[in-house]
Write a structure and sequence with these properties.
heterodimer, A: about 325 residues, B: mainly alpha, about 0% strand
């Protein structure tokens, strides 16, 4: 030890470089496989799309984005004046506003209720049944709900028309067909799908609350309502905020449900910016992918702005 | 206490008209009432589509929920009525298995490197992964994913879809594994390292058995993501033989021609059944994995 201590020198730059290189070589092989896919098919594509958005690349006219003309911000200027883009952004925002409260608060209610079930077996059964929809992939959920809402064979209108008689065949609701009900119908579908999975998040949060907190509050004579707000809700707030931010991100950029339930019908509210982007890039006219990339990036920037604002707003209050 | 209470209770039951009012536990009634109706709402569509798959043809074209006649032959016709269907199912199986295997492996490796190794730059990697959750790269990047696949000659190829499929749940999978790895004390890896074990040996021998539940959560997550994936498969393939079960079902004109309602419903049940069965089989570990830290990510 003594002899080693004697030989300690100030680390030369060669040593530090050597050390960090070997550390790199020992640890990064674990990260690289994941990063290859992440960079190759997630990070690079969106950066590349930014580059494409400044060109007039049309798939049917140009061989590659490189052979297309660099047109600066022209796509963006045109897109921001395009009523389809504006309505698309607005409609995505309307759907998000309808979807988000239910997706965040309903699971909180069920989680609090499941958490209070004393019988362990019953509590597990509730959890399992609630989680079933989470085991079905999204697009398959949407296919099922298109059938559920259908006028021809759908059980929802069967109950409303034939069993309850609330409506008759002439005025029965066309859930996904009419502008007024489309987003509510889609939101119901999403809530059905996400209820169980989000309940699990809250249950994980509830399990960290010490039971003594409740007991001492009860001893102090606090009402159940007050206990809920002051202890349960206060403890679940961080989870709630995370879910708001995460679900906002997914809700504003939905595309599968819009295409699968509404197709490419431009008169429908489901023709949001994402659907318009897909339509422009892969279907309509010369497949103007430069313009489509600009639409995609406008949506992305708008979304990021709101996410940053949400972070800021939530951080301020805590 | 018990012996003294016993005769009293017997006496109380003998004196039939109980002096005390029976208190209905309203809180409990409301609690179970709400939860049971939630369960009913969740199970009803699945029950309905199963029932549709075993309805006789005339019953299937009315909207009556309970049929007059049952007909179980739709499951047989589903596999023969659409001649590409066996191929589509095979495509879905291959893609899903490849995605589960590859993404889970790379997520375990990355999660390990982000928690238990002194990886330079891990904070930056983590920050980029977190940021990716808030960027709709799946939508906006689609144009360039098409371009990449085109350059690689993989447009209209089922096998080619394996590459973009790895990113479907990659970031989430890494977060789950990171959360689970963080529940393992660092001293465990540290002491094994002192004993001369290589980092890979530590991962294989010590860590892997401990993160088993997390691995199951990641496997299930990727199964769901890949099995039902529609956007990429629909964008990057054209021929029906190359497409997956989900894409074929989504583009089917349900109720018309070869896509008879009971046949469609039978296909649907076939499509969702593997996930449900797998979930029931591994639910115990899945639930534990969720609690162990998968949800903290």
């Amino acid at each position: 030890m003594a002899s080693r201590a004697a030989t300690v020198r100030p680390p030369s730059s060669f040593h530090t470089i050597w050390r960090s290189t070997t550390r790199f070589a020992r640890t990064w092989p674990y990260l690289i496989p994941a990063l290859v896919f992440f960079v190759g098919w997630q990070l690079w594509p969106i950066i590349r799309a930014l580059w494409i958005s400044f060109t007039n690349f049309s798939f049917l006219l140009d061989d590659s984005p490189e052979s297309a003309k660099w047109i600066g911000f022209e796509n963006y200027v045109n897109a921001l004046q395009d009523p389809l883009v504006r309505d698309g952004l607005l409609n995505a925002a309307i759907f998000t506003a309808i979807f988000l409260p239910g997706m965040v608060f309903l699971p909180m209610v069920t989680a609090v209720l499941v958490d209070r079930v004393r019988n362990q077996k019953l509590a597990t059964t509730y959890r399992l049944i609630l989680l079933i929809p989470a085991m079905i992939p999204g697009p398959l959920i949407f296919i099922l709900w298109v059938w559920m809402y259908s006028n021809g064979i759908g059980p929802i209108n069967y109950v409303l028309v034939d069993v309850l008689g609330v409506y008759d065949l002439a005025n029965q609701p066309t859930w996904l067909g009419s502008t007024n009900t489309t987003f509510v119908s889609l939101a119901l579908m999403e809530w059905w799908w996400g209820l169980g999975f989000h309940t699990m998040f809250y249950l994980a949060g509830l399990s960290t609350i010490p039971k003594e907190l409740y007991e001492s509050a009860r001893v102090d004579g606090a009402s159940e309502w007050r206990i809920f707000w002051k202890i349960t809700f206060a403890r679940l707030r961080p989870i709630l905020l995370v879910l708001v931010v995460l679900r906002f991100g997914t809700a504003y950029a939905l595309i599968d449900e819009y295409i699968l339930t509404g197709g490419f019908d431009r008169s429908k509210p489901t023709y949001t910016w994402t659907v318009y982007m897909w339509d422009t890039a892969f279907q309509v006219g010369d497949q103007n992918r430069g313009y489509a990339a600009a639409i995609g990036w406008i949506g992305t920037v708008g979304m990021l702005a709101v996410v940053l604002w949400l972070f800021y707003a939530f951080r301020n209050r805590d | 206490m018990a012996t003294r209470a016993e005769p009293e209770r017997i006496a109380a039951t003998r004196r039939r008209p109980a002096p005390r009012r029976v208190r209905i536990p309203w809180g409990s009634v409301v609690k179970h009432g709400i939860l049971l109706s939630c369960c009913a709402v969740i199970l009803f569509p699945l029950f309905w589509v199963f029932l549709l798959s075993i309805k006789s043809l005339p019953d299937a074209y009315t909207n009556h929920i309970w049929p007059n006649d049952f007909d179980f032959s739709s499951y047989g016709t589903a596999l023969t009525a659409i001649d590409t269907l066996p191929q589509n199912i095979r495509n879905s199986v291959v893609l899903t298995l490849a995605t589960m295997l590859i993404t889970t492996t790379v997520a375990v490796l990355a999660g390990y490197a982000l928690v238990h190794l002194r990886t330079p730059g891990k904070r930056i990697v983590l920050a980029i992964l977190v940021a990716s959750l808030f960027v709709p790269s799946r939508v906006t990047g689609l144009i360039s994913i098409w371009e990449i696949q085109d350059r690689l000659g993989l447009i209209n190829s089922t096998w080619g879809l394996i590459l973009p499929y790895q990113t479907l749940a990659l970031a989430v999978s890494i977060f789950i594994m990171r959360g689970v790895f963080e529940t393992i004390p660092r001293e465990l890896a540290e002491s094994a390292r002192v004993d001369g074990a290589s980092s890979f040996m530590i991962l294989r021998r010590i860590m892997l058995p401990l993160v088993r539940n997390g691995v199951i959560v990641v496997l299930i997550t990727n199964f769901i993501a890949a099995w039902g994936e529609w956007l990429l498969a629909n964008t990057l393939t054209n021929d029906q033989e190359q497409r997956t079960l989900t894409v074929v079902m989504a583009s089917a004109n349900a109720g018309f021609g070869q896509w008879l309602w009971p046949t469609m419903a039978a296909m649907y049940v076939v499509a969702i059944l593997p996930g449900l069965i797998a979930f029931i089989l591994v639910q115990r570990w899945y639930m534990r994995g969720l609690q162990e830290g998968a949800l903290k990510g």
